[in-house]
Sequence to fold (429 residues):
Amino acid sequence: MPNVASPTSAALAPPATSQQNRSIVIIGSLFFIFGFVTWLNSVLIPYLKISCELTNFEAYLIPFAFYVSYLMAIPSAWVLKQVGYKKGMSVGLLVMGVGALLFVPAALTRTYSLFLLGLFVQATGLTLLQTAANPYITILGPRESAAKRISVMGICNKVAGMIAPIALGAVALKDADALVKRLGTLGAAAKAAELDTLAARVIIPYLLIIAVLALLAGLIYFSSLPEIDTDHEDEAVAAANTGKSSIFHFSHLLLGALAMFFYVGVEVIAVDTIISYGTAQGIAFSSAKYLASCVLFAMILGYAIGIVAIPKYLSQERALQVSAVAGGLFAIGAIFTSGFTSVLFIILLGLANSLIFPAIWPLAIAGLGRFTKLGSSLLIMAIAGGAVLSLIYGLLVDRFTAQHAYWLVIPCYLFLLFYGVAGHKARRA
Fold:
């Protein structure tokens, strides 16, 4: 997700408006794919918990397997350097298709480890896509409005995210309440047969996903999407970066990566835990399966606010500060209330989280110049926060309760507030 303000050379000049609009549409389609594949996890967690008979901790290995793959961002940057951004996007889509294909034997054998491997491979391809697509959308215009363009991409991502759990939930969690009750009355053989049938429900949806990924890979490969060059920097940036030989010389980037780690953690916790949390608060599966889409709808509302307000009425820094404070307050509300009210506060976390990523990205990569590509990769790697924090959340649920496990997000929002107030200025110290 790289900075646009630093590069002002001809190599990085924004393309003509018509070409820019075409490029935004293409990248928007990629962000739609990001969202669709990513937010299927909110359904896979309760679905595989039932079909593979998992504990809470084991079930939250699903987001762990998915988000830990973002540590592949540095190798992804190397791939992009070798083949370019456009071909790299096509390769990423094909890798995602391979991961989706692994779901077929996993479902046929009800092998949880194979499901996890499929998720890891899907997310590895997604990492390559994100490492390429985020620099693209940031460079397609001035830095001051980067958060606005990223907000547009966020809407593409979250619209897909709203659709994904509803679509998969309608298949995978159909009649789940009755099934869970029935499983408790069955003998071992009959129970295994029911679970095998349940596991097979995802085969057709994932075959459709494979077909879409392959089609999009071909469309991207033969598209008019221009190649971009982030290795050049203008004279002012080059002068500022004199004597800097690695990304570790940019304190604001390192703090930004940590902020990204915490942000993705709280975002994933809000979306991926809410279906299970809703059932723990007495909401039936038939209704709870829509809750993840509610969180993502709240994020879409937040993105819409960002498009209108940034930078005209709200700076990127201020947006981050307001979002961090709101996130902390909503989390406290969820912890100290119960029933649907508590669940509603988790939904509102989507609204609070919406403008954090669009604000962190341009602030973290400001002034990186020739280090932009590597800095972008570091921020992508920080998405692994979704793996670590969701797994800790699952452990806390088994140790305490699903509600008290939300205390985990409070220190995360406090650090995000710090980054919005002071951390992003560290490069100027």
